[in-house]
């Protein structure tokens, strides 16, 4: 069997944590980049050494969505694509924007910000988003970590999933970006051939562990008044066991919580 790591793919980003390096995973940001910076301060993040992984959905709804291009330029940030990025890119797949998709994104996905930025800024955002992979695989001293936006088809192992995503298999891509099967049905089976995974997409009031997947979209963008103060931004130490997500946070600043 060939070694999958030998096959170059833009849909999978494979990273290796170096000794002394730390890695954190952040839940769905949706334009709350100020909260991300607050979280990084709380863990005394070292931009020169540490990694920040994002489960996707960096844009829409939140006031700072336009900061996404700057955020993705930071060398320590490794993000995957979420369904919000995907629809924006799909709307701009050709020179003429798909107005139907664009309208959907603006009216139903919280994409009003898109109309308020200059054409140059729009181009910078599109360029940054086009470079995003669909999955991240991070080798750490405490096991192999996967990052996916929404879900993995229940019953499928990680290697099969990675191969299907690399091939661009449409239904598997759709599951990765927008399925809610596992959280909505509370499925607890483990994904074989990977130690632990982090996903976002489905909002919970606190992180939720199902099998070996930690669901960490805790609705950061819904926190702000008149929102619900149960919601917050989750940052988790990628080296810690997933069970840390079920314990009280290490640091709790209300709208920003750190698990590890
Ligand atoms: Mn999503």
Automatic annotation (TrEMBL):
Q: Which residues form the Calcineurin-like phosphoesterase domain?
A: 24-90
Protein's name in the database? Metallophosphoesterase
């Amino acid at each position: 069997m060939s070694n999958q790591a030998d096959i170059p793919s833009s849909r999978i980003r494979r990273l290796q944590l170096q000794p002394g390096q730390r890695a954190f995973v952040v839940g769905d940001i949706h334009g709350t980049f100020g909260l991300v910076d607050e979280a990084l301060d709380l863990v005394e993040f070292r931009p020169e050494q540490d990694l920040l992984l994002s489960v996707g959905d960096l844009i829409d709804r939140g006031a700072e969505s336009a900061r996404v291009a700057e955020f993705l330029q930071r060398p320590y940030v490794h993000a995957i694509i979420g369904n919000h990025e995907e629809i924006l890119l799909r709307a701009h797949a050709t020179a003429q924007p798909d107005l139907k998709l664009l309208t959907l994104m603006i009216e139903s996905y919280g994409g009003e910000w898109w109309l308020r930025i200059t054409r140059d800024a729009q181009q910078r955002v599109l360029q940054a988003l086009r470079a995003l992979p669909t999955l991240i695989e991070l080798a750490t001293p405490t096991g192999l970590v996967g990052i996916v936006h929404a879900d993995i088809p229940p019953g499928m192992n990680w290697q099969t999933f990675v191969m299907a995503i690399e091939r661009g298999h449409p239904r598997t891509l759709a599951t990765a970006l927008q399925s809610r099967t596992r959280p909505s049905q509370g499925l607890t089976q483990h994904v074989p051939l990977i130690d632990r995974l982090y996903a976002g997409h489905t909002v919970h009031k606190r992180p939720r562990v199902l099998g070996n997947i930690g669901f960490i979209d805790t609705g950061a963008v819904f926190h702000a008044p008149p929102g619900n103060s149960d919601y917050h931004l989750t940052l988790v130490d990628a080296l810690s066991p997933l069970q840390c997500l079920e314990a009280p946070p290490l640091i709790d600043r209300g709208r920003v919580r750190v698990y590890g």
